[in-house]
Structure formats: structure tokens, C-alpha cells
Amino acid sequence: MIRAATACVFLVLLMLSAGCTIAGRRSVSAENELLRRRIIELEKQAALLTGERDELSLKLTETLRAGDFPAKDALESLPVCARVEMDRYCGFDPADPKSPATGVVVGFRPLDGRSRFVQIAGRVRIEAMTLPPSINLDATGEPARVAVATLQPPTLREAYRDGFGGARYEVVLPLQTPIERGPGKTPTLVIRVELTDALTKSVHQAERVIRPGQ
Asked: What is the pLDDT of residues 66-117, one digit of tens each?
């Protein structure tokens, strides 16, 4: 598949150099722009396929070597999740506090023993709950659950984000019933995350409380 994509790129380049048009319906410059975009698209596809191939090759190599024990120093330097913390990008969605909330944005960060972000494979259970503005967390009773989700390993991998604000996992949980917001209306939001590491089988939990105005 990668070879086919590469061949297409060379074919398009030949067409560009010849300055040809398709059925004479468009100008040479228009056709060249169209072909240039196609080249970029094919190059992206080829890069993606190459990355997936290399990853599968590494996984196959490790599988075949499953009977070998890694060196002690290599094992000690392998980063693993030691804890999980809630990211600052958490709260109601949309961000406009005057609009009804239709979802809950949940961001969290698995950290190693040196408090550095580490990608993981595992399962994550997320709960979002609310408390009326007049009730605090010291009151008797549990918050009302408004959203819940379980991320399996493939879904967790797709939730990875890396950009403004640093690396994190982020998902948006939809609300079955929109929540009205505004002065005296916005409830306190409680988000709980439970992460089960597929590698170590360890369980890590984190919670964040977001009060109105935060």
C-alpha cells in the first residue's frame, strides 16, 4: 500500500512537469494546484501507513521476544504510571457560563514516579456529578450523577491530546439533559477518574471539584 502511494506521487509529479490539463477544461495553473494538493494528501497517507507499519513491527518483535527478561537497568528505567491527576481543562461544555451545559470536558494526566506525563494502555472509568449551588461537599448525601463513561484501551489512545497546555487525555461526556447556568443556577461539578493500568494492573484515582465561577 505504501509503494502504491509512492508511485502515485511520482506519477503526479510527472504530470506537473509536463504542464498537462485534464480534458482541457481547466487552466494549467488550476490543474497544477489540484495536483499539488493531491501530492500533499498522498504524502500524508504514506507517512501514516509507514508509522503504523513500524509500530506493528515493534509490537511483533516484542511479542516474539516475550520469553526474554529485560536487563535490570532497562526495567528500572521503564516509565510506568505512578498516579493520575486531573488536568486544568475540565468543566462544563460549552465554556460560555451563560449557555446551558450540554456536556462535561474531562482532562487527566497519568504521571510517572518523577511527576512526568506518561502515555499508558488501560481502562478508565469517568463519573461527572453535580451539587446544587446551595449545597457544599460537607453536606450529607452524594452528588447527583449526570454523566458516566468507560474508556477501553483503543478509545483511551484516541483521547490523547498534545498541544496548548501540554500532553493529556481529554474526552467530552454528553449530558442527557442540559444544565442551566447563570447567577445562582450553576451547580458545583465533581469529576472522578479511575484508571486501571493494563501493564501493572495498578489502579489510580483522582477527583476534581469545580465550583461556580472557577
From this structure: 555 555 666 567 778 899 999 998 999 998 988 999 999 999 999 988 889 9
- pLDDT in the model for residue 72: 60
Q: Is 71 helix (H, G, I), strand (E, B) or coil?
A: coil
Q: What secondary structure does DSSP assign to 97-162, as a single string? A: TTSPEEEEEEEEEEE-TTS-B----EEEEEEEEEE-TT--TTSSSPPEEEEEEEE-HHHHHHTEEE
Closest to 179 in 3D by CA, of 127, 129, 107, 140: 129
Block residue for cell numbers 483521547: 159
Spell out the domain ranges in the chain.
Answer: 2-64, 83-210
> How far is the C-alpha of 144 from the C-alpha of 133, rounded, in Å?
13
- Per-residue pLDDT at 66: 59
Cα atoms in the Cβ-side hemisphere of radius 13 Å centred on 129: 17
Average pLDDT over residues 34-52: 81
Q: How far is CA 47 from CA 33, 50, 53, in A?
A: 21, 5, 10
**Which top CATH class is 83-210?**
mainly beta
End-to-end CA distance of the chain: 50
